[in-house]
Protein backbone atom coordinates (compact mmCIF):
# COMPACT_ATOMS: atom_id res chain seq x y z
CA UNK A 1 0.00 0.00 0.00
CA UNK A 2 2.78 2.40 0.92
CA UNK A 3 4.67 1.58 -2.29
CA UNK A 4 1.53 2.35 -4.34
CA UNK A 5 1.15 5.63 -2.48
CA UNK A 6 4.77 6.53 -3.22
CA UNK A 7 4.28 5.75 -6.92
CA UNK A 8 1.21 8.01 -7.11
CA UNK A 9 3.04 10.77 -5.27
CA UNK A 10 6.04 10.44 -7.58
CA UNK A 11 3.87 10.66 -10.70
CA UNK A 12 2.12 13.78 -9.46
CA UNK A 13 5.40 15.38 -8.51
CA UNK A 14 6.72 14.57 -11.96
CA UNK A 15 3.82 16.53 -13.43
CA UNK A 16 4.44 19.48 -11.12
CA UNK A 17 8.19 19.88 -11.31
CA UNK A 18 10.04 23.18 -11.10
CA UNK A 19 11.29 24.85 -14.24
CA UNK A 20 15.09 25.07 -13.92
CA UNK A 21 17.10 26.46 -16.79
CA UNK A 22 20.62 27.66 -17.45
CA UNK A 23 21.73 29.91 -20.30
CA UNK A 24 24.62 32.13 -21.36
CA UNK A 25 24.21 35.91 -21.44
CA UNK A 26 26.34 37.88 -23.89
CA UNK A 27 27.84 41.25 -22.82
CA UNK A 28 25.55 44.27 -23.29
CA UNK A 29 22.70 41.99 -24.35
CA UNK A 30 19.44 40.89 -22.77
CA UNK A 31 17.63 37.57 -22.71
CA UNK A 32 13.94 37.19 -21.88
CA UNK A 33 11.92 34.13 -20.90
CA UNK A 34 8.13 33.82 -20.85
CA UNK A 35 5.81 31.55 -18.92
CA UNK A 36 2.12 31.33 -17.99
CA UNK A 37 0.65 31.94 -14.56
CA UNK A 38 -2.82 31.33 -13.19
CA UNK A 39 -4.92 33.74 -11.18
CA UNK A 40 -3.97 34.22 -7.51
CA UNK A 41 -0.90 32.05 -7.99
CA UNK A 42 2.44 32.58 -6.26
CA UNK A 43 5.45 32.60 -8.56
CA UNK A 44 8.88 32.28 -6.94
CA UNK A 45 12.27 32.23 -8.58
CA UNK A 46 15.88 31.72 -7.60
CA UNK A 47 18.83 32.82 -9.72
CA UNK A 48 22.59 32.71 -9.63
CA UNK A 49 25.04 34.36 -12.04
CA UNK A 50 28.73 33.75 -12.55
CA UNK A 51 30.89 36.63 -11.40
CA UNK A 52 32.50 38.99 -13.92
CA UNK A 53 34.46 41.98 -12.52
CA UNK A 54 33.22 45.30 -13.80
CA UNK A 55 30.05 43.87 -15.32
CA UNK A 56 26.53 44.31 -14.02
CA UNK A 57 23.34 42.34 -14.65
CA UNK A 58 19.82 43.54 -13.88
CA UNK A 59 16.56 41.64 -14.05
CA UNK A 60 12.96 42.78 -14.50
CA UNK A 61 9.69 40.82 -14.49
CA UNK A 62 6.71 42.18 -16.45
CA UNK A 63 3.22 40.95 -17.23
CA UNK A 64 1.66 40.98 -20.69
CA UNK A 65 0.52 44.60 -20.19
CA UNK A 66 4.04 45.79 -19.34
CA UNK A 67 3.48 46.24 -15.61
CA UNK A 68 6.63 45.62 -13.58
CA UNK A 69 6.06 42.87 -11.02
CA UNK A 70 9.63 42.55 -9.74
CA UNK A 71 13.02 44.04 -10.57
CA UNK A 72 16.49 44.44 -9.14
CA UNK A 73 19.80 45.88 -10.31
CA UNK A 74 23.36 44.57 -10.05
CA UNK A 75 22.42 41.03 -9.11
CA UNK A 76 24.60 37.97 -8.55
CA UNK A 77 22.50 35.55 -6.51
CA UNK A 78 19.09 35.86 -4.95
CA UNK A 79 15.37 35.15 -5.00
CA UNK A 80 12.20 36.89 -6.09
CA UNK A 81 8.47 36.23 -5.78
CA UNK A 82 5.20 37.82 -6.84
CA UNK A 83 1.51 36.95 -7.00
CA UNK A 84 -0.63 37.07 -10.10
CA UNK A 85 -4.13 38.55 -9.99
CA UNK A 86 -5.45 36.77 -13.09
CA UNK A 87 -4.39 34.28 -15.73
CA UNK A 88 -1.61 35.96 -17.69
CA UNK A 89 1.84 35.55 -19.20
CA UNK A 90 4.85 36.95 -17.40
CA UNK A 91 8.25 37.73 -18.88
CA UNK A 92 11.54 37.81 -17.00
CA UNK A 93 14.47 39.59 -18.66
CA UNK A 94 18.14 39.55 -17.66
CA UNK A 95 20.06 42.58 -18.94
CA UNK A 96 23.85 42.73 -19.13
CA UNK A 97 25.60 46.09 -18.79
CA UNK A 98 29.32 46.50 -19.42
CA UNK A 99 31.14 49.86 -19.10
CA UNK A 100 32.94 51.08 -22.24
CA UNK A 101 36.26 50.79 -20.42
CA UNK A 102 35.82 47.05 -19.82
CA UNK A 103 35.97 44.11 -22.15
CA UNK A 104 32.82 42.11 -21.72
CA UNK A 105 32.76 38.37 -21.04
CA UNK A 106 29.93 35.86 -21.30
CA UNK A 107 28.16 35.06 -18.03
CA UNK A 108 26.19 31.95 -17.10
CA UNK A 109 22.74 32.48 -15.60
CA UNK A 110 20.97 29.71 -13.67
CA UNK A 111 17.26 30.25 -13.09
CA UNK A 112 14.80 28.07 -11.16
CA UNK A 113 11.13 29.10 -11.28
CA UNK A 114 8.40 27.55 -9.14
CA UNK A 115 4.68 28.21 -9.27
CA UNK A 116 1.72 27.45 -7.03
CA UNK A 117 2.16 24.47 -4.75
CA UNK A 118 5.80 24.15 -5.82
CA UNK A 119 6.52 27.20 -3.66
CA UNK A 120 5.20 25.60 -0.47
CA UNK A 121 7.59 24.23 2.13
CA UNK A 122 5.85 21.11 3.39
CA UNK A 123 8.66 20.39 5.82
CA UNK A 124 7.97 23.71 7.55
CA UNK A 125 4.21 23.09 7.46
CA UNK A 126 4.70 19.65 9.00
CA UNK A 127 6.91 21.00 11.77
CA UNK A 128 4.54 23.86 12.55
CA UNK A 129 1.47 21.62 12.68
CA UNK A 130 3.39 18.71 14.24
CA UNK A 131 2.38 16.35 11.45
CA UNK A 132 3.81 12.92 10.87
CA UNK A 133 5.78 12.28 7.65
CA UNK A 134 2.88 10.30 6.18
CA UNK A 135 0.47 13.13 7.01
CA UNK A 136 2.80 15.62 5.31
CA UNK A 137 2.86 13.41 2.22
CA UNK A 138 -0.92 13.20 2.29
CA UNK A 139 -1.14 16.99 2.53
CA UNK A 140 1.23 17.33 -0.43
CA UNK A 141 -0.81 14.76 -2.39
CA UNK A 142 -4.04 16.60 -1.60
CA UNK A 143 -2.62 19.93 -2.79
CA UNK A 144 -1.25 18.30 -5.94
CA UNK A 145 -4.65 16.77 -6.69
CA UNK A 146 -6.38 20.14 -6.19
CA UNK A 147 -3.84 21.82 -8.46
CA UNK A 148 -4.37 19.21 -11.19
CA UNK A 149 -8.15 19.67 -10.95
CA UNK A 150 -7.72 23.44 -11.26
CA UNK A 151 -5.42 23.00 -14.25
CA UNK A 152 -7.97 20.77 -15.99
CA UNK A 153 -10.70 23.32 -15.24
CA UNK A 154 -8.53 26.07 -16.70
CA UNK A 155 -7.76 23.98 -19.78
CA UNK A 156 -11.46 23.27 -20.26
CA UNK A 157 -12.27 26.97 -19.96
CA UNK A 158 -9.60 27.89 -22.49
CA UNK A 159 -10.86 25.13 -24.83
CA UNK A 160 -14.39 26.56 -24.59
CA UNK A 161 -13.08 30.07 -25.31
CA UNK A 162 -11.14 28.80 -28.32
CA UNK A 163 -14.20 26.89 -29.57
CA UNK A 164 -16.36 30.01 -29.23
CA UNK A 165 -13.74 32.03 -31.09
CA UNK A 166 -13.60 29.44 -33.88
CA UNK A 167 -17.39 29.36 -34.21
CA UNK A 168 -17.55 33.15 -34.27
CA UNK A 169 -14.82 33.28 -36.91
CA UNK A 170 -16.59 30.65 -39.02
CA UNK A 171 -19.85 32.64 -38.88
CA UNK A 172 -18.09 35.84 -39.88
CA UNK A 173 -16.32 34.11 -42.77
CA UNK A 174 -19.66 32.63 -43.92
CA UNK A 175 -21.42 36.01 -43.84
CA UNK A 176 -18.48 37.65 -45.61
CA UNK A 177 -18.55 34.93 -48.31
CA UNK A 178 -22.30 35.40 -48.85
CA UNK A 179 -21.84 39.19 -49.00
CA UNK A 180 -18.98 38.82 -51.50
CA UNK A 181 -21.06 36.44 -53.64
CA UNK A 182 -23.99 38.87 -53.65
CA UNK A 183 -21.64 41.72 -54.64
CA UNK A 184 -20.20 39.66 -57.50
CA UNK A 185 -23.67 38.64 -58.73
CA UNK A 186 -24.87 42.25 -58.56
CA UNK A 187 -21.79 43.47 -60.42
CA UNK A 188 -22.18 40.78 -63.09
CA UNK A 189 -25.87 41.66 -63.56
CA UNK A 190 -25.05 45.37 -63.84
CA UNK A 191 -22.34 44.64 -66.44
CA UNK A 192 -24.74 42.52 -68.53
CA UNK A 193 -27.45 45.21 -68.44
CA UNK A 194 -24.97 47.98 -69.19
CA UNK A 195 -23.47 46.12 -72.16
CA UNK A 196 -26.98 45.28 -73.46
CA UNK A 197 -27.99 48.95 -73.39
CA UNK A 198 -24.68 49.91 -75.00
CA UNK A 199 -25.07 47.42 -77.86
CA UNK A 200 -28.70 48.50 -78.39
CA UNK A 201 -27.64 52.16 -78.46
CA UNK A 202 -24.98 51.32 -81.05
CA UNK A 203 -27.55 49.22 -82.97
CA UNK A 204 -25.29 46.18 -82.75
CA UNK A 205 -28.14 43.98 -81.58
What does this structure look like?
- This protein has 205 residues and is of the alpha+beta class.
- It has a domain at 2-119: Jelly Rolls (Sandwich).
- Helix content is 44%, strand content 30%.
- It contains three helices and eight strands; from the N terminus they run H-E-E-E-E-E-E-E-E-H-H.
- The protein has helices at 2-15, 122-129, 133-201; strands at residues 19-25, 30-37, 42-49, 56-62, 68-72, 77-83, 88-97, 107-115.
- A four-stranded antiparallel beta sheet has the order 1-8-3-6, with no helix packed on it.
- A hairpin with a 5-residue loop joins strand 4 and strand 5 (68-72).
- Helix 1 runs parallel beside helix 3 (133-201).
- Mean pLDDT is 83; it is low at 4-17.
Integer average pLDDT: 83
Query: How much of the polypeptide forms β-strand, as a percent range?
Result: 25-35%
Tally the helices: 3
Name given to the CATH architecture of the domain at 2-119? Sandwich
- The N- to C-terminal Cα distance equals 97 Å
Briefly note the CATH topology name of the domain at 2-119. Answer: Jelly Rolls
Rg from alpha-carbon coordinates: 30 Å
Poorly predicted regions: 4-17
Summarize the model shown.
The protein is of the alpha+beta class and 205 residues long. The chain contains 3 helices and 8 strands; from the N terminus they run αββββββββαα. The chain has a domain at 2-119: Jelly Rolls, CATH 2.60.120.380.
